[in-house]
Write a structure and sequence with these properties.
GO terms for molecular function: 2 iron, 2 sulfur cluster binding; oxidoreductase activity. It contains 16 helices and 35 strands. With about 700 residues, the protein is α/β, with parallel strands linked by helices. It starts with 19 loop residues before the first strand and ends in a 31-residue tail after the last helix.
């Protein structure tokens, strides 16, 4: 049986004690770990196809790993469940979903009781950085707060982030890994006497009588809050292309969930679509997990994410194709290859530029949509409601923390618990942390060939300054632009001591150290490394510059870690002085394109590509009815069933709106589909109240 467990990782602990359990999938006995998600257990056992669609028998696999779609549905002990949200238990009988499931026989009488309603001062939906930061502000006052989150652990997407965060040490934990930040915030909440936390609890609807329906595990409870904060985060956007529903086409967040949360190696060779921070970081996480990143495409002429993230991929050997798009994913039962092509200024593929690569997984990282339906419906029903984090505006987690703090104080003020005004610097810092990457400056070549000093390879305006905070001699400064400015080493009489703290803390791994003290011609350089699970003295490594250009092979002299910055290895090598200031990292892979298949599609959204994954509705069907005069997406839903599937239109609605715009309609000329509760599907039996244990 295939075992895809990650047993070695440069950052994450892999020797976690977990209870092993047995289960069956389609009558075959398999093993997993108790309370891991069923989807992760199946993928760890080599199962990528969870069933076949009732309409066209197409293979179905995991896509979002976040409960937002229904691609991963399986039958467990006779009931259809989302495998990405259902914990594994000993002895489970799991079957693939083939067509429509039969209704189970259930003659057990149900003792119906009135549904319990509880009241609270503030209900926060979402236990990520925004929700937790808001709760911490509210806990400073005598305010009863309830946080509900559908996961088994607080932290939101922070629990997936192995990289160190940007921003400032003082305000947003800069230089600390996302997984550690999640633990810090969760510990603060758990130590509070005024904050109650419901985990594995899903908000399923808001109602006009100002109550919120919560499924607390399998107990349905109505919560009546005085104030409501929506901090539900975001869901990933999808692209429409032939093969977009094949197993192996993941959202980047799903990939990170499997690899970083569940320690499951999903793939051998991946391709990434999208050059924002999410895509760039996912590529880095893949390499950390021992997965080959075959390439990344970005439709714009330049990647939209931080240059330091892009540089990390380039120097590790990942080809980045800007002004390119995906044309198609190929495969019968799962992804086998991808075809990309260059695009012109109108985003149309250029004939003759197609390239095809062997891959088994395609990560879609083309942006996020706010999970804001709870907020919009609550506003419609007259709740006192706020939103924060990605549910309000898509930005970095560091900005979400400030947004949560601001919302927390605003709610406390509205309840009359404080008259304090919100510090203006909070709003300023939130705005800065939301900033898009700024101008790129030309890097200056250092002149000194004596002493020891850092080389700062970061030359783009981004909100980050931990290197200026840790230098014991205060030799790294940002002279202009505040936290968005470019840090520089100031060579003064108070000389650098070569402590390498700036190298170890840098979130972009964009600082190296050059030491001429023992040899003016062949200095010792210190490079940060978070890729190899093990690097030893005497190992030969290929050094590269920030663009991934090879500088030669060199032997490792020494490897060390600073106690304050574990898992960032400081690798020392001796190199000629002419390349000492260029060297940034080590090459780990070489990629070759293969002409597997020649497929060319002349439009970005071809007619035969699926827009609605749940009901298998193509772009061509949608276009046909739009061209016939259908201007109401609710009517379009009734005709085609696009949006009527298990995900409730979460994935396809924005794609259908895009087709309206491609057909010449502007916003206001067509009617968007109505969002109606329930926002999450729930087994009917859970609406019968049960006594709490």
């Amino acid at each position: 049986m295939t075992d895809r467990r990650i047993t070695r990782h440069p950052v994450l602990p892999t020797n976690i004690e977990r209870k092993k359990v047995s289960f069956t999938f389609n009558s075959k006995e398999m093993f997993g770990y108790e309370n891991e998600m069923i989807s992760s257990a199946l993928i760890a056992n080599g199962i990528d196809i969870f069933g076949h669609h009732k309409k066209d028998k197409s293979p179905q696999g995991i896509f979002c790993a976040n409960g937002q779609c229904a691609q991963c549905t399986v039958i467990v002990d006779g009931l259809a469940v989302k495998s990405c949200m259902t914990p594994l238990k000993e002895g489970m009988k799991i079957e693939s979903l083939e067509g429509l499931p039969s209704l189970p026989e259930d003659d057990e009488p149900i003792d119906l009781k009135p549904v319990k309603t509880i009241e609270t001062d503030v209900l926060i939906i979402g236990g990520g950085p925004a929700g937790l930061s808001a709760a911490m502000e509210l806990s400073k006052y005598d305010i009863n707060v309830l946080i509900v989150d559908d996961k088994s652990k607080l932290g939101g997407k922070l629990v997936l982030q192995t990289h160190k965060f940007f921003g400032s040490i003082k305000d947003s934990f800069a230089g600390t890994r996302g997984i550690q930040i999640g633990n810090i915030l969760a510990d603060q909440i758990n130590s509070s006497q005024k904050v109650d936390v419901w985990l594995e609890s899903t908000a399923i609807a808001v109602f006009s009588d100002k109550v919120v329906g919560i499924l607390k595990k399998d107990q349905y409870i109505l919560v009546k809050p005085k104030k409501l904060l929506i901090a539900t985060g975001a869901r990933e956007k999808m692209l429409v292309f032939p093969g977009n529903t094949l197993p192996g086409v993941y959202g980047a967040g799903a990939f990170q969930t499997l690899v970083n949360r569940d320690l499951v190696k999903t793939s051998e060779r991946i391709f990434i679509v999208g050059g924002g921070n999410v895509g760039l970081i996912a590529g880095y996480h893949a390499i950390q997990a021992g997965i080959e990143v075959v390439g990344l495409v970005e439709a714009l002429p330049r990647c939209g994410g931080y240059k330091v993230h892009e540089d990390k991929l380039r120097r590790l050997g990942v080809p980045i194709f800007t002004s390119h798009t995906i044309l198609a994913a190929h495969g019968e039962e799962r992804v086998e290859s991808i075809t990309i092509a260059e695009i012109d200024e109108n985003f149309k593929p250029i004939d003759g530029t197609e390239k095809t690569f062997d891959v088994d997984t395609i990560l879609i990282a083309v942006g996020l949509n706010p999970v804001n339906e709870f907020y919009l419906k609550a506003k419609e029903y007259g709740f006192d409601v706020w939103s924060a984090g990605d549910a309000k505006e898509i930005a970095e987690a560091s900005a979400a923390m400030f947004g949560g703090k601001i919302a927390g104080v605003e709610i406390a003020r509205s309840l009359g618990f404080t008259n304090e005004s919100i510090p203006e610097e909070w709003r300023e810092k939130e705005a800065i942390l939301k900033s898009h990457p700024g101008k790129i400056f030309e890097r200056e070549k250092p002149n000194s060939t004596s002493g020891v000093y850092p080389i700062i390879h970061c030359n783009q305006e981004i909100p980050c300054n931990p290197c200026t905070s840790v230098c014991p001699k205060n030799l790294i400064k940002i002279e202009e632009g505040g936290i968005l400015g470019i840090p520089k080493f100031i060579d003064t009489e108070d000389k650098c001591i070569g402590c390498a703290q700036c190298v170890a803390i840098c979130p972009g791994l964009a600082i190296t150290l050059v030491d001429f003290r023992n040899d003016n011609e062949n200095p010792t350089i210190t490079l940060p490394c978070e890729i190899f699970t093990e690097v030893n003295q005497g190992d030969t490594l290929v050094l590269v510059d920030e663009d991934g250009n090879e500088l030669g092979k060199f032997s490792v002299n020494k490897v060390r870690e600073l106690r304050k910055y574990p898992a960032t290895k400081l690798v020392e090598l001796q190199v000629p002085k002419e390349i000492a200031w260029k060297a940034m990292s080590f090459k780990v892979q070489n990629i070759i394109a293969h002409n597997v298949e020649d497929k060319y599609y002349g439009t970005i959204i071809p007619d035969d590509a699926y827009v609605c994954r749940c009901e298998r509705v193509t772009a061509g069907e949608v276009r046909k009815y739009i061209r016939s005069g259908v201007k109401d997406m609710n009517e379009l839903k009734a005709i085609t069933r696009a949006g009527l599937g298990a995900c409730g239109g979460k994935t396809c609605s924005s794609l259908i709106e895009r087709i309206y715009r491609e057909e010449g309609y502007t916003r206001g000329e067509y009617k968007p589909s109505s969002k109606r509760p329930l926002f999450v599907e729930v087994p009917l039996k859970n609406f019968s109240s049960k006594e709490e244990n």
